[in-house]
Amino acid sequence: MGTSPQIIPSSASTSSKPGSSYTLLQLLHFIVAVAALVVATLALLTRPEVIKLLGEIINRTQGALSGPRPSFDPFLARILHGVQAATILCFVLIHRTWLRQMASKLTNAMPVAQKTLEQFSEGWVYMWYGWVALYIWFFVSARWSESPRVLAVSDVLDVASGFAIWWCFLALDMPSVKLKDHPHRDRAFHLAAWAVGIIGAICAFLGVADRLFDLGHIGVVVGLYNALALAFLTGRLGSHYMKLHRSILLCLYLYSMLQLFYSFLPLLKTAIWAPLIFLLALLFKIAVAYAGYDMMQNGGLRRYLDEAQAEAIKS
């Protein structure tokens, strides 16, 4: 492929068994995921209104199903949102450590790989930080979860994390590092980043306007913006260089579909459907975390970076 001999050995070296720090972080990664699912599921299943509704569904009675729909319990909402915020924060701290360890193994002889990893890391970390901010906001505002102003703020936060997902995709998909003899090599990347940023701002504006002035659910563009971002990124993570397991990719594609439900959450006023959506979101975020774990720990991201460096040399 015309690659320099230094590149292939560097990729091979990443396939060796991780050290003790990696093993500890892997264990912590697993414990956080399991604990989050257990706590969130128990919180959901032990709520009296959920138990009542499940019992009526099982008995095929029509009482609660045909009657008024109870609102999403603020106490339950705080539990689910608090668990998500804490889980996401743990994941981002672990992934930051892994990305820094990966960056330390890239030599100055691989400037394109270094810069590409730096760009991807920025998007990946800020994606998680955006989700942390969103769920902290959900946690704080749970008592007023149906307020248009509260929902408007959540739309803006959701678009912010969506832009970070787009950034990750662009960093992996396009030449994003300029070279000494090719100073405009990154121009298309920056133009694309500006484009998705402007589109994101428009989506956020429409989402806020829809929340405040009830414009007929035009705010669905917020969910669509994030859904497309995650679908595009999942397609890139499905590259043969990454070699992510197909079950993880399936979860990510399903998560991209779930994004479209976000704008319609106020319509899901039953005591069970709204928390189930958030529980599914937690499950799929764990899938995103394991996609990161897989590509960082099993050499997929490093193989991708090596290929980026090789392509830069050939160009």
Unreliable spans: 1-18, 60-70
Helical fraction? over 70%
The overall strand count is 0
Radius of gyration: 22 Å
What's the helix count?
Answer: 12
Helix and strand element order: HHHHHHHHHHHH
The SS-based structural class is mainly alpha
Morphology call: globular
Q: How many structurally independent domains?
A: 1
* End-to-end CA span: 12 Å
Strand content: under 5%
Largest sheet: none
On the 0-100 scale, what is the average pLDDT? 82
Give an overview in words.
Helices cover 74% and strands 0% of the residues. It contains twelve helices and no strands. Residues 1-18 and 60-70 have low confidence and may be disordered.
Element layout with pairings:
Layout lengths: L6 H7 L6 H26 L2 H11 L4 H4 L7 H31 L6 H30 L7 H26 L13 H27 L6 H18 L8 H13 L14 H25 L2 H15 L1
What structural keywords apply?
single chain, mainly alpha, 12 helices, 315 residues
Give a brief outline of the structure.
With 315 residues, this protein is mainly alpha-helical. Helix content is 74%, strand content 0%.
